[in-house]
Amino acid sequence: MQNSKAKMDEFKTRFMDMLHKQTNRQMKIPAMGFSDYFIQTVTTDTPPFTTAGAQSAEADDVTDGAANAQKSDQEILESIEACYYDADSNLELYELKKVLSAGIDSQLIEDTIAQLRVQQKVLTKQVLQNILEQRNSCSSEFQAINETQKKLEESLWTCQKARSYLNYARTNLTTTSLEILASYRKREVLKEVLQTLVAIKKLRTTDEELQKLLAEHNYSAAIALLLQCQSSVSDFMQYNCVQSLHKKLQETMLLMEYQLDTVLNEMVLKFDVRKYAKLQEAYKLANKSLIAMDQLHMNYISAVHSTVNAVVRGYSEPNADDQPKLLYEQVCEQLNTDKLIPCLISLCKTFWTILASYYQVVIWHNNYKLYAQQEETDGESPDLYIQQKLKKGQSRIWNDILNKVCLFLQSAKLKTLKYDQFIQVLSIVQRLKKVGIEFCGEQSEKLIAAMQQQSEEFFKRYHICCVEEICLFLDNESWTPLDSFAHILQLPEFRSVRHTLRRHKSPTAALIASTNNSPISNNNIDELVSVHSQDGGGSSIYGSYGYFLRFSEKSSPFDGGLDAAMLEEDILSGIVDEASCYFSEESDDEQKSLQSKEFADDTSNQLLVNNTALNVLRCIGRYLQMCKLMHCISPKIVSCMLELLDFYAYAVHEIFGKDALVATDNLYTPRLEERLRAVESNLLTHIKVWPLNFSSLINNELANPDTLYGLPQRIVAVEAGRSMLQQFHVLQHYLNHLLPAAERPMLSNYLEYGEFMTDLAKPVYTCVTSRVIDLSAILAQMAKVKWDVNHVTHQHSSYSDVLNRNIQNFAMCLEEISKEVPLPSKNVWNSMAHVATHLLVEGFSNVKKCSAGGRALMQLDFANFMSFLELISNQKYPQHRAYVDVFIKSYYFSPEQFEQWIEQQRLADDYSAKQLTSLIQCICVSDKRARQKLLQLMDGVTTNVTPTSTPQENNCNSGSNLRNVI
Predict the structure, then answer these.
(1) H or E segment at 584?
(2) Can you say whether the dihedral through the CA atoms of 413, 416, 421, 425 is positive or negative?
(3) Of residues 33, 36, 28, the one with CA closest to residue 74
(4) I need a labelling partner for 280 at 20 to 30 A (CA). Which of 44, 205, 264, 926 fits?
């Protein structure tokens, strides 16, 4: 203890010495000091023990201090040069050089010495002040050192005490106790060795059990046993036999993983619930469930690419080994036309097998959770990842299938197929689309776009073929009515929509009453039947997931009867069954009985059609099927339907509407002219067989006065067109259902023009009525009548009797014709009234001079004719009566009224310029000024009017005035 205290004292001494040395040698004094009073006091105080020399020095210092009294400590400290703070500098030599640099100057030396003394004193005072300020810190540091010394003494005491205890234990423990410990340790070692031997023995027998489990396909138990063995092997890797066994177990594990991957790959084309459950349990034990799911998706994607190539090559390359490998697109291009549909069906069957397997995988993972306990504890589970992976995989697999099918459709020559074959392709694609909607909820827009392109190309060619087919019918048409036709539903082309059309009540045409009293509204039924329903995804068999509930991977929606029955399937149309939402068609016997009931009441209302009109309706029925299956081009198809109707009307006009003996320009309405021109510009340019040769019909039947110049044929042609339009109105609601909302006005605008065939009938029937009356003879007789009589006569003119006899002969001929064909009396007699009244106006306009008695004679002749015409036709003609009355009564107008009437006729086309000019000259014969004024007005009208062209081109090129009668 005494030695330690001595050492501590020595340590304190050395520490203090070091502290003083550091303070005196290296510390730089900061810029701070005392007041001027303190400096003077310190500098003037001298100790009593100083010598006389020191007192003189002090006196000098006092003098210097007085000189520097005005300087503060800070300024003095700052005046000390930097070299004085450098420990390595030679200050004496520095001061000598500085003082003696300019020679020996005693005053400079004294001043320098005084300055150095002042600086030394100020610096000394500053150091003392710093020491005083750091005294508290030094005391606290010494206190800490004392505490440290106490702790060291306590530690020394503890070590000494422990050594004494150890010395006691060494001296008192015996060898016997150590022997007991050694025996216990040996026994534990032997137990461990025995356990090791038992474990090694068990490991050696594990391989046989693994092979047995693998043979039984019990992969979960095999992996569990293998994992248990691997965990045991890791504890005995120091033994050579265990190391070799470990390698063998690793090889067995790799072999087992390979077998698991093989069985997993088999699930793609042949799903087995039991095997798949065992596989998932095995992967779960191996902690590879997520990896297995990724591998399963790769297997599905690989299966799509490999199977599609195998199927297509099987149809295109029977000897594939002898030919170079081609790309998938090239193989599709080389397919023969007769193999396109079988190949497409095989592709769809293969895709269905893959999709059905994947769908069952999704259902299995939705029903069973592999990590349910982990999800309950952690809240997160690999099951969530698996379900997300499966959901994304559905879209990816379906997109791969779509790519393959789209490439097939784009590469194959679908536009060369026949109509029935292309309809079958549409049916297959439509069913495939529904499978995609049920599988992953996608609308398969890429598939629809590809099929839309193919459909447009096919339909463009097919439409021209249909028009040329109609031309062939026109060329061989006899223009005689067909028997036993009352409704379009009799045609086989409309069988697929028969039940749908019964539920649609057209506002313009009476339909057959529906025999089904289903509580489902018509709108809902249409949504079920039509493929253009708003949801776009419901299956017409079982609703949603219908195909996956009805079929499995062993059967498919593309099996059985696809070559013929698919056209009759629910994908086209059928009866709705409320219980199952399944659509079907009746048998042939049921259909015949149903038709007999439906049309029993219509025998008295048979429609007048000919072979050409019936063929047009059949083409529309085929168009309707395509419109249902490929509603993406439904606007184009419906537009082509309307073109067929317009083309028939145009052909009727070309055949029967151009041989009139009078001008028929004012018989064409603007809408009629627009439709006829549209056929010329849009359709005729694509038809190779047009124009047809109708010279035989025109020269024989249409020139025969015994048949009223082919009036029966003209009636059949016009009325057949009217029947077609009437039947087309039946389809209006259903076509609106198939059309997008933006395209429906196109159909409505077309059907709003209900007078289409009536307007077309005017020039057609005028070609007959203009020949029945001897126009030139009547005009000649009217010119011989004396119209400037001074008295009013009570006897009508002779030409009126001739005109009445012509009308009577015409009525007798019509009576004979009505026995052959139904007679449209209103239209025919209206045409006759039109020709006769315009003939009378033309004759009245040729009068040069006319008196009041002459005007009365005109009215008498006209009244006689109209009364006879109305009596024999049993009809009234107010429009035609007013046409002649106004012309005759214009003679009685006042000059102002007559001028106003002429002004009105400038905007109307009722009378020709020649007729008005003649009327002005006749009325204003005595008033030259009024006549000149009105004639100038008419000259302005005639020069400003631009003649309008019409589709009508008359065959008669004669210069006779008969062309201006109408």
Answers:
(1) strand 583-584
(2) positive
(3) 33
(4) 205
Phi, psi dihedral angles at 479 (to 5 degrees) = 55, 45
Cα(71)–Cα(127) distance, integer angstroms: 19
Half-sphere CA count of 64, side-chain side, radius 13 A: 23
CA within 13 Å, CB half, 315: 26
Chain-centroid distance, C-alpha 407: 19
Query: 17-31, 49-63, 605-619: lowest mean pLDDT where?
Result: 49-63
Contact in structure between 33 and 122 (CB atoms under 8 Å) = yes
pLDDT computed for residue 112 by the predictor: 86
SS3 of residue 236 by DSSP: coil
DSSP-based three-state secondary structure for 407: helix
Single-letter amino acid code for the residue at 188: E
Q: In terms of Cα–Cα distance, which of 846, 714, 830 is closest to 767?
A: 714
Which tokens belong to 128? 């003392």
Which residues 6+ apart lie within 8 Å of 918 measured at CB? 845, 846, 847
Three-class DSSP category at 821: coil
902 pLDDT tier (thresholds 50, 70, 90)? confident
Rounded Cα distance, 251 and 230, in Å: 12
Per the CB < 8 A criterion, the answer to whether 388 and 584 are in contact is no
What Å distances lie between residue 134 and 29, 73, 138, CA to CA? 14, 20, 6
Per-residue tokens: 588: 């042939």
How does DSSP assign 918-939, residue by residue? HHHHHHTSS-HHHHHHHHHHHH
Sort strands 583-584 and 575-576 into parallel, antiparallel or unpaired. antiparallel
Tell me 322's DSSP state. Answer: G
The answer to whether the CB of 860 falls within 8 A of the CB of 934 is: no
Q: How far is the C-alpha of 494 from the C-alpha of 617, rounded, in Å?
A: 9
DSSP for 551-580 reads --SSS-TT-SSTTTGGGGSTTT--EE-TTT
Could you give the percent of the chain with pLDDT greater than 90? 16
Element (H, E) at 813: helix 798-817
**For residues 673 and 412, what is the distance between their CA atoms, to the nearest angstrom?**
42
- Rounded CA gap, 487 and 480, in Å? 18
On the question of pLDDT at 183 being above 80, the answer is yes
Q: 584 - beta bridge partners? A: 575
The answer to whether the beta carbons of residues 598 and 512 sit under 8 Å apart is yes
Per-chain mean pLDDT for the chain = 76
Q: Which two tokens stand for residue 783?
A: 């010119």
Q: Where are the alpha helices (DSSP H) in 173-272?
A: 175-215, 219-233, 240-266
What is the rounded (10 degree) CA torsion for 9, 11, 16, 20?
A: 140
CA dist 784 and 829 (Å) reads: 28
Q: Do 341 and 421 touch, CB atoms closer than 8 A?
A: yes
Pairwise CA distance, residues 418 & 340, whole Å: 12
DSSP 103: -
> Which residue, 770, 823, 774, 778, is CA-closest to 798?
778
The DSSP symbol for 963 reads G
CA distance 210 to 250: 12
The end-to-end CA distance of the chain, in Å, is: 154
Q: Are 575 and 465 in contact (CB under 8 A)?
A: no
How many other CB atoms sit within 10 Å of the CB of residue 97? 10
What length is written for the chain?
966
Confidence of residue 285 (pLDDT cuts 50, 70, 90): confident
Other beta carbons less than 10 A from residue 765's beta carbon:
27
pLDDT of residue 3: 63
Chain centre distance of CA 740? 14
pLDDT at 210 exceeding the cut of 50: yes
Spatial distance between the Cα atoms of 638 and 291, rounded to a whole number of angstroms: 53
The candidate with the shortest Cα–Cα distance to 612, out of 486, 722, 720, is 720
